[in-house]
Amino acid sequence: MGPAVHRTRYSTQDPDQALDILARVYSVRQWTLTGTEGFHLEVATTTIGPLTLEAARTRGAAGTQTVDFTDTLRIDHLTAGRLAIDQVTDKVLPATPLLLPPAGYTQRWSQAAMHSVALDPTAVQAHACALHGNELVPLHFTGFTPVSTAASRYWTELLTHTHRYVLSNKDATDSPLILDQTVRHLLTALLHTFPSTFLEAPPPSRDTAPVPAALRRATSFIDSHLAESIGITDIAQAARLSPRGLQAVFRRHLDTTPTAYLRRARLAAAHHDLLAADPATGATVGGIAARWGFAHRGRFATAYRRIYDQSPTTTLRC
After folding, report:
1. What is the pTM of this model?
2. What Pfam families does the annotation carry (predicted)?
């Protein structure tokens, strides 16, 4: 069983209730409002395992809120209004992701709307060690802003994709494969977007396992576990290589990546299901695509047509 989806939604015009909501979701300790006329707070959260995606909007009065130490890594993404974070910047730019200080901070906002991603630090640490191939990599974030414009864009586009094609897609939220991929992708994006000891760590020692045998182990593992929630660290462990070594082996001998190989194998499995399915029984392209980890139906159709020279809808109807 993969991670389940848990959703909550709050809406209030009462400042005292608003503080309770903000304390529960964002660990806010105290806040002040510049008047209460027209005040309205809306908060929605979606939790998938160690990941919580949050959306908040304030209307009416401006305010200041203080967050003490938190055991959550949170990335804010302003979409409207004004926001300042005293320990980071006096003006948050829209569409710029910011990693919030875990030791605490003070926010000042007005007519603000934002998306946030909250991650369990234990899961982030474990993912960093698995990706690096070294269980002893200490993880500390050393900055609050993305390491580059490209990294910022990557994070923003991934977050947009998650909201648009995963959280708003019932086939996707019913798919353990897609939910697990969503968590993995955001964990990986966090580690590559913000400065940290993960990016500064030296690469692990060179793998010495015989390449053909390691490659056979990797492809056999993928082919045997297509319907399960697996990622590059699982494949590397089965191949007895580090994740970086695994990437090099696939690139050198198959001119592809492990994730591309996995995606192609799942596309073939979806093709098999489309051929065997009967639309009269309720089978749909979206449902079959989601079963094999494809949340974006348009991208699935494009990839499918590239390989099989016809649309998945045509295959299903044949």
Report:
1. 0.80
2. HTH_18
